[in-house]
Amino acid sequence: MSDTRSRTALVTGVAGQDGIYLARHLTSLGYRVVGTVAPGTDATDRLAAYLRDITVIELDSRDRQGFGEAIEALQPREVYNLAAFTSVGASWRNAELVAETNAMSVLRMLEEIVAYRDRHGEAPRFYQPSSSEMFGISDQQPQTENTPHYPRSPYAAAKSFAHHLTVNYRDSYGLFTANGTLYNHESPLRGPQFVTRKITLAAAEIALGRRDKVTLGNLDVRRDWGSAADYVRSMHLMLQQDEPQDLIIATGRSRPLSELLEVAFEAAGLGDPARYVEQDPDLMRPADVMDLQGDPTKARELLGWQPEHSFEEVIGHMVRTDMERLRSGVEHSAAYLHAA
């Protein structure tokens, strides 16, 4: 193995929240990072603000030939597949696209990695981000690596398919492939279509007198929320192990959305959010998952990994960053990535 290859990582979907945090983490460790964005993606400002020390190439994650050509040219030691359709709520309206992007693309990548191995005698290590949504309505709280999947959305079903494929190609072909089952993880880079960012942005706008209300759906759903900056560290650690493992990455505590709302409005100096919130039944999902809580024991024991940022720190930082965005008019800045 050449020294260049030993320090090269390919990160698909590098312009997304996790892609940016992971690419910055890898470069801080001395990696050469090559990241992909979908053809035609306008991410110039975002990449200029957050990622100046990586190479960016255009690649549709569904393009098997393009992926094969990329790994042949780059010969990466590690591949992190972070390109995905990420909205659970929107997946019902885009079920076919979700299946192609989150499931079939993984099959094509694994096939190309097998072909690469057959040509070169070795293959890059492959990381697949699975989702806690795969567990669906689970009678096991918290969920562990052995909890059965019961997906309740097209997004979750596609993620479950990709998860099992990643295991199957490891078992069938001896590849180093690993699933990190990620529970909800947030940062100021989270898109405004996600309910967490919808809440932090609304709190900032209300605090600055730019709106009066926020409309939300079910406030009783519970999720295990963590920090994106913490979770990407686990991705790298998983590919450094002697043997590949599938691990739960979570904080170990679930909270209702109403608590996230309270923390966000408190961080904005607004106090009780009740007078600012309206609920709309149309925002309810066709089949919702009420409670997801992960057990990160195995990740702690095998990787030495544990979260460094509290729930309150993450949400408070998001609110303060949104207030700074609104005041300054600057949407993207490296200063937004971590709390001062």
What this model shows, in words?
There is one protein chain. The chain is an alpha/beta fold. The protein has two domains: 3-185 and 226-249, 3-Layer(aba) Sandwich (Rossmann fold); 187-224 and 254-291 and 310-336, UDP-galactose 4-epimerase, domain 1 (Alpha-Beta Complex), CATH 3.90.25. It is built from eleven helices and 13 strands. The strands form four sheets. It has a seven-stranded parallel β-sheet, sandwiched between helices. It has a two-stranded parallel ribbon with strand order 7-10. Strand 1 (8-12), helix 2 (17-28) and strand 2 (32-37) form a beta-alpha-beta unit. It is globular, with a radius of gyration of 20 Å.
The biggest sheet amounts to: 7 strands, parallel
CATH class annotation of the largest domain: Alpha Beta
CATH superfamily label of the largest domain: NAD(P)-binding Rossmann-like Domain
Task: Give the strand tally.
Answer: 13
How far is the N terminus from the C terminus? Answer: 40 Å
Class by alpha and beta content: alpha/beta
User: How would you write the strand order of the largest sheet?
Assistant: 3-2-1-4-5-6-11
- What is the alpha-carbon Rg in Å? 20 Å
